[in-house]
Amino acid sequence: MIKQVKQELIALSSSQMANYSHKLIPNSLPILGVSIPNIRKLAKKFCKLDFRGIIEEYDSSSFELQMLVGIIIATAPLSLEERFTYLNEFIPKICDWAVCDCLVNSLKCCKDHLRETLDFILKYKTSQKEFEVRFLVVMLLNYYINE
After folding, report:
1. What does the chain look like in DSSP terms, one character per residue?
2. Is the pLDDT of residue 147 over 80?
3. Does the pTM exceed 0.70?
């Protein structure tokens, strides 16, 4: 399944988008050049298929693949426990701001589970890893700071 995912990402890629993305995200994984709207469409498609296989087989071979898997984890029909399990494995692999922020923005399901989500994210408050800390801060900003 992951081979099909990679082929679809490559089919949607463009060198112009890759150059643009590389300027915005200079320290990311290799960039294929697929737009975020196209990645979201693929995630929606794969959430109807064997998305668990994709999550479990995924490697960090490209920025877009990591972004896709993050969106799948955030939006797939999963129990809260299962989502947190996948997030525990995924968050330490994040290596740029764009994947981190897009993941947080996609975790809209957390609005319905604020207490449980807060318990989950607070473990990152003592992390020394840049994007684990960023995940915590952006989650707090997006879902817990209000008027």
Report:
1. -HHHHHHHHHHH--HHHHHHHHHH-TTSS------HHHHHHHHHHHTTS-HHHHHHH--SS-HHHHHHHHHHHHHSS--HHHHHHHHHHHGGG--SHHHHHHHHHH-GGGGGGHHHHHHHHGGGGG---HHHHHHHHHHHHHHT---
2. no
3. yes
